[in-house]
Specification:
By secondary structure, the chain is α+β, with helices and mostly antiparallel strands. It contains 10 helices and 14 strands.
Length: about 325
């Protein structure tokens, strides 16, 4: 029998699947060349958080302090993975800043997030050396939040020099920000954390992964980067990750993940527009985007949800998403009653 390892909780994101390994998209979906944008909903847009930097990442990159510390930012990008949206939902910010020397990931993390593993990360500026490069991170306190910056350096650079440069950029990022405000949420939001066991039983995860028996365990995989560590440790996301380990030569195993950001629906239009090779559909009455690889992104008007998988047995992603929603709704109804 193939063995199955279940990892449940707040874990790092799965890597993208090969096109023939992903969940089968729903029948009748458009070809990968078609990427229609979501149709605006008639419902009002949920209230957004207040950014710690008015104008967001572009304004942060253009601030006098950041320009002076970095030597000038040539390109700026707002990071938009689920855990980045979760950071913004809490009143923080996540940016990528390309300078003439470095590609810097810069985060403004509200005090509410500085717990557990993230608190340990912020307290210890460090360089981790690999075979050809090293990743370093440094932090600096600010108004109601902490700035965390990370970048890769050649191994020829000594730790003190790298950390000194990043420390200066972190201080500049912190000085350019004020305290943000989390997104307002209504009383009824999705369960946090998710009930991974109930979700697995409802969607038939053992069959989904191509296994007749399941062995369960809890734990988090190692994080290779600061961004990966934030994905694992962030208290603003909830997720379940299942992995079936290979059992014979040629078997690459299979994976499936459910990721949610409670209160993240304010970013739905931005998130949906960034999802390429996808078509619009409805799942349980909620707007959704289904990609050609079979990933599902959806919003209930308050929260956002992402389902993704690799090398799965034939499955309807819409039916699977409905199963996940039914577990969440039942658990939330029980907690209210």
């Amino acid at each position: 029998m193939a063995s199955l390892l279940l990892v449940a909780g707040m874990l790092s994101g799965c890597t993208g699947a090969d096109a023939d390994d992903a969940i089968a998209p729903p029948s009748g979906s458009a070809s990968p060349s078609e990427s229609p944008r979501p149709t605006p909903s008639a419902s009002p847009t949920p209230p957004a958080p207040v950014s710690p930097v008015a104008g967001g990442c572009p304004a942060l990159a253009a601030s006098d302090a950041v320009v002076a510390a970095s030597g000038g930012v040539q390109r700026v990008t707002t990071l938009d993975q689920m855990w980045h949206i979760a950071i913004e939902t809490e009143g923080g910010l996540a940016c990528s800043l390309l300078t003439s020397r470095l590609a810097v990931d810069a985060y403004l993390l509200p005090t509410s997030l500085a717990t557990g593993r993230i608190a340990a990360l912020l307290a210890a500026p460090t360089c981790d050396r690999g075979a050809g490069s090293m990743e370093c991170h440094a932090s600096a306190p600010g108004a109601g939040q902490t700035a965390l910056v990370a970048a890769s350096f050649p191994t020829s650079v000594d730790d003190a020099t790298a950390l000194g440069e990043l420390g200066g950029i972190a201080a500049a990022v912190a000085a350019s920000a004020t305290e943000g405000t989390p997104a307002p949420t209504r009383a009824t939001t999705w369960s946090h954390p998710l009930d991974c066991r109930a979700i697995g039983e409802t969607i038939g995860v053992t069959s989904l992964l191509g296994s007749d028996e399941a062995r369960t365990a809890l734990g988090a995989p190692p994080a290779a980067t600061v961004d990966g560590e934030l994905a694992i440790a962030s208290s603003t996301t909830a997720r379940c990750d299942w992995t079936r380990t290979p059992t014979q030569k040629g078997d690459r195993g299979s994976e499936f993940s459910v990721i949610s950001v409670p209160g993240g629906a304010w970013a739905w239009k931005t998130l949906a527009a960034s999802v390429s090779d996808a078509v619009d559909t409805m799942v349980g009455g909620h707007p959704a985007r289904v990609t050609s690889r079979g990933e599902v992104y959806l919003s209930d008007g308050v929260n956002i949800l992402h389902l993704q998988g690799q090398r799965l047995a034939g499955v309807s992603v819409v039916d699977t998403a409905l199963g996940v929603l039914s577990v969440i709704a039942k658990k939330d109804a029980g907690s209210r009653g």
